[in-house]
């Protein structure tokens, strides 16, 4: 299952995977944060313009998973990590995450919905630590451009380097 940097030709597949997988959020995240499609094409274009580099994992010529990484100066953010329903629980997400980790020397932070327990569990199984309280709020306000309501309903996870950064910023 090769992993490669996405090209504009992958955008339709990326949107299809994101919007299919994000259906799991419907009825789980706050209703005022849900919209359809979950990610319209204009938002994907904005994310790419903002520096999110997407990586895709292919199997049998089809994109099965997507994960973005965004350089934010002293950290990197994992953005928009989704696996097609056909490929879930098959190691696609872990392979993409390990690929991105191998590319990145900076601390890695991941934001997700607090109610997306399956996503939080996935990142914790892969060595990430949940950041809570004021540290979580500070990180979301520093590195993400999201509304206050999303800050209230989100969590941050950090790799070891990100966890050390969080502790350092606190002192």
Number of strands: 7
CATH architecture: 3-Layer(aba) Sandwich
Q: Shape from CA axes?
A: globular
Largest pleated sheet: 7 strands, mixed
Low-pLDDT regions: none
What number is the mean pLDDT? 93
Rg calculated over all Cα atoms: 15 Å
Number of helices: 7
Taking strands numbered 1, 2, ... along the chain, how are they ordered across the largest sheet? 1-2-3-4-5-7-6
> Given this structure, which CATH class is correct?
Alpha Beta
Approximately how much helix is present in the residues?
25-40%
Order of helices and strands: EHHEEEHEHEHHEH
CATH topology: Aminopeptidase
Distance between the termini: 43 Å
Identify the CATH homologous superfamily.
Gcn5-related N-acetyltransferase (GNAT)
Number of domains: 1
Q: What class do helices, strands and sheet pairing give?
A: alpha+beta
What does this structure look like?
- The chain is an alpha+beta fold and 171 residues long.
- It has a single domain (3-170), classed as Aminopeptidase, CATH 3.40.630.30.
- It has seven helices and seven strands, in the order βααβββαβαβααβα.
- The model has no long low-confidence stretch (mean pLDDT 93).
What is the structure about, briefly put?
The protein has 171 residues and is of the alpha+beta class.
How are the elements arranged and paired?
Blueprint: E1 3-5, H1 11-21, H2 41-49, E2 52-59, E3 62-71, E4 76-83, H3 92-103, E5 108-113, H4 117-125, E6 129-131, H5 133-143, H6 148-152, E7 154-158, H7 160-170
Parallel strand pairs: 4-5
Antiparallel strand pairs: 1-2, 2-3, 3-4, 5-7, 6-7
């Amino acid at each position: 299952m090769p992993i490669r940097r996405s090209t504009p030709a992958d955008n339709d597949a990326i949107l299809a995977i994101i919007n299919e997988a994000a259906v799991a959020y419907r009825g789980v995240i706050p209703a005022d944060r849900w919209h359809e499609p979950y990610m319209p094409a204009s938002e994907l274009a904005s994310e790419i313009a903002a520096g999110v580099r997407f990586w895709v994992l292919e199997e049998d010529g089809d994109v099965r998973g997507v994960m973005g990484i965004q350089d934010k100066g002293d950290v990197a953010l994992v953005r928009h990590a989704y696996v097609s329903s056909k490929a879930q629980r098959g190691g696609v997400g872990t392979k993409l995450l390990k690929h991105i980790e191998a590319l990145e020397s900076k601390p890695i932070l991941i934001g997700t919905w607090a109610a997306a327990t399956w996503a939080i569990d996935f990142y914790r199984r892969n060595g990430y630590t949940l950041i809570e309280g004021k540290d979580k709020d500070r990180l979301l306000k520093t590195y993400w451009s999201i509304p206050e309501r999303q800050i209230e309903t989100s969590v941050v996870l950090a790799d070891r380097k990100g966890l050390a950064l969080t502790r350092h910023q606190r002192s």
